[in-house]
Amino acid sequence: MTLSLADIIPFLLLAARWTLLLSAIAFIGGASGALLLLLWRYGAPRTGRRATAIYIQLLQGTPLLLQLFLVFFGLPLLGVEVSPLAAASIALTLYASAFLAEIWRGCVDAIPLGQWDASASLGMNFVTQMRYIILPQSLKIAIPPTVGFLVQLLKSTALASIVGFNELTRSGQIVANATFKPFLIYALVALIYFAMCYPLTLGSRALERRMRITR
Amino acid sequence: MPDTQMPNAQMPDAPMIQMINVNKWYGNFQVLKDISLNVAKGERVVICGPSGSGKSTAIRCINRLEQHQTGQILVEGVELTDQVKNIDHVRREVGMVFQQFNLFPHLTVLDNLTLAPRRVRKQSRADTEAQAMHYLERVKIAEQAHKYPSQLSGGQQQRVAIARALCMEPHILLFDEPTSALDPEMIKEVLDVMVSLAEDHMTMICVTHEMGFAKTVADKVIFMDHGQIIEVAPPAAFFSTPKHERTRLFLSQVLKH
Q1: Could you tell me which residue, A6 or A114, shows the higher pLDDT?
Q2: Are A123 and B165 inside 8 Å of each other by CB?
Q3: Which residues of chain A neighbour B121 with C-beta distances below 8 Å?
Q4: CA A148 to CA B27: how far, in whole Å?
Q5: Which residues pair with B72 in a beta bridge?
Q6: What does the alpha-carbon distance between residue B11 and residue A154 come to, in Å, rounded to a whole number?
Q7: What are A150-180's pLDDT values in tens digits?
Q8: What CATH number should be reported for the domain whose range is A5-214?
Q9: pTM for this entry
Q10: What is the distance between the alpha carbons of residues A41 and A48, in angstroms, rounded to a whole number?
Q11: In angstroms, what separates the C-alpha of A203 from chain B's closest C-alpha?
Q12: A132 at the B interface (CB within 8 A)?
């Protein structure tokens, strides 16, 4: 049996949908988690500063592949069966929340302390300060590093192939094994990853430009 | 007297601000030593002293941007403790103007003024905008309402900052070296606004090196050094017959030029 490119490319593109889905889940989940970590850190510094630092260090200090294994093999030990997609989603969400929380912490810390003083002196409570003063200003500096991380996250979803989730990389492996043309196939796979990441970078630049004008 | 029926009622002549033996340390370094100070309603107080003498820290304790460790601070009879309710209450009644203006750079001048009244006092947009325009006219800058802070000069920014504080209708205004970051030709426009507030008997505490301002409007001048209040006197006596050697030394240095 020989597979033509006309068969291979649609097969890979269909698999790329799963890569996009997994990236979206991890990014949305991770961003929500990171926002909660951020609010905890600044809203209740006595406990939050320490606790979020430990969480971030644990997740940044261990390989993503191992986090994936721990979720995939660990949850069944606790009696929770997880599909490869669920395991990959959980692991990538935790991973993304730690990195985004750390990136955004830097962006919040970059806001001059006078902004906190002024808003506090006007009687604003923490949530109001965050919502109207600190986060809107942090957002602008957060865009480039956040998109940079999103690109990295999208590429990291390739690791989910190892627990048997059928995303782009694993589909590439399957096709490569069937066709005996690994170089061609993996080059195609790389091209598809690039085609997904490049627009993100372009979008980020456009967004930055727009925010510079509205300032 | 309706006042006496209120739960937190004060004596008619009770001070607006009372600091009683306030001490504060940064680590082992004591920044405030036994500060005691009363400010009456309508009183205008100027605090001066060399840099690092604790004067900014002292007024930042009054709206709890800094926490004191021992002693008591009462604002309109409400004691400042860890209780968030008290802190919120005091901050709503005490406005502050900063050396670096600290306007919100992502908001227009008008939004800078209306944000807190809308989100803290829960007033309507229309009400707060009318009020904001009123105070912008008062600081003579109404025509800049739709600009961003970065488009204004330093003196204009500081006048916006004063208007922003006024929009919360505070009973007390704190000024933390409001003219120190300004070019010389802009100092006057800010001082003019401060003088007009003082003439309206706003209760105000100003940390400043502007001795001319102290002479013309202050009811009393406080000299601080090394975290202590060294001397308190009405301006006439303070400038003509300072009692303490350190005050004389300081005055000879600031009044020289």
Answers
A1: A114
A2: no
A3: 123
A4: 40
A5: B20
A6: 67
A7: 999 999 999 999 999 999 999 999 999 999 9
A8: 1.10.3720.10
A9: 0.88
A10: 4
A11: 22
A12: yes
Which of B174, B187, B167, B57 lies closest to B117 in space, CA to CA?
Answer: B167
B116 residue type, one letter:
A
ipTM of model: 0.91
In sequence order, which residues have a C-beta less than 8 Å from that of residue B224 and are 6 or more positions away? Answer: B47, B48, B49, B53, B54, B55, B58, B230
Residue A97 and residue A93: Cα distance in Å, rounded?
6
* A chain contacts of residue B168, beta-carbon cutoff 8 Å: 122-123
Contact: B102, A123; criterion CB under 8 Å: no
Query: How far is residue B217 from each of residues A90, B18, B82, B198, B205, measured CA to CA in Å?
Result: 65, 21, 35, 7, 11
Q: What residues of B are in contact with residue A125 (Cβ under 8 Å)?
A: 84, 88
Q: Model confidence over A3-31: pLDDT tens digits?
A: 788 889 999 999 999 999 999 999 999 99
SS3 B174: strand
Tell me the residues of chain A between 95 and 114 that have a Cβ less than 8 Å away from chain B: 112, 114
